[in-house]
Give the backbone structure.
Amino acid sequence: AAARILQSGMRLPPLPTIRELVKLYKLQARKQLSQNFLMDERLTDKIVKSAGRIDARDIVLEVGPGPGGITRSILRRQPERLMLVEKDQRFTETLQLLKECARPLNIQVDMYYEDILRFNVEQHIPDTSQRIHLIGNLPFAISTRLLINWYEDLAARRGAFRRNDTCMTLTFQKEVAERICSPVGGEQRCRLSVMSQIWTEPILKFIIPGKAFVPKPQVDVGVVKVMPLKRPKTQLPFPLVERVVRHIFSMRQKYCHRGYGTLFPPEDREEVTEKLFQRAEVQDTLRSFELSVEQCLRLAEVYAEHVNAHPEVASYDYRAPKNPEIV
Ligand code: SAM
């Protein structure tokens, strides 16, 4: 028992278990909010341990605390401040209980009943003197969108990423977790792998079997630690990189010039594509999943140069109808 306390940090005052609280407050999981609760303290401790060192001065922002399983594990690590962003107000009582337990430990717990996709971090953490950890058993329905939004913040050094040591420890559906971390040539290599690896170093820490959650989701879950790179691999604007990578991967199994070519109008598509691949020194018969992050970025750089010389190309959309009907 002593080893357990040391491993997981501070002991909290005696509390009913999460399972008991869920029952007591009739907190049935809501599918529309992607609610799957983790009741096993060893697993919640393991997730928080994956975040690495949490110093006494640090801030932890937990996304979707729900009934508070991971929240308890975070409190045992005693950050200075814990911010909880939760959309569902039914958890007010269970989270309030944890806030009270945290008071004697001098941990400031702030609860925000908001949508994390709209949450303004800079407003709530105005200065950058403290390190931030983002932790969450994310709702599946928004996990990829949230991650991409955070990469955009990271590229622009804003929001939670004004410092370059903001670390994310997050859960995803196992396949999504594998995609985020997939290396060049990997079976799961896709747009999300490249976007992740341009600005961060993602590590798949461990897999949690679906049966550990209540209710049990259809799939297993992967815990990923995503660390911002000290030196991001590009200084190009995020929207431009996102556009190029999206086009490259739009035809994953075909030669990569096919998807990339759709960035340009059909009149001179072949010629421009060939020229830019040569300039980027990338072989155009590789498949997109065989391209390294560096190769994708070289293709983004030559695209940026091309757009500078031909600004009309920036807004070209190959799916837009050629002769739009006037309505
Ligand atoms: N952390 C709890 C656990 O591990 O047992 C609950 C995890 S559950 C998978 C996801 C949580 O995110 C739910 O509590 C849900 O209400 C919340 N949530 C869903 N969408 C959200 C959003 N857009 N913003 C903030 N919280 C959200």
Q: What stands out?
A: The pocket of S-adenosylmethionine is lined by residues 33-38, 63-66, 69-70, 85-88, 115-117, 137, 139, 142 (CB under 6 Å). Strands lie at 37-38, 59-63, 81-85, 108-112, 132-136, 167-173, 200-208, 213-214, 221-228. DSSP finds 13 helices and nine strands in the chain. The first helix runs from residue 2 to 8.
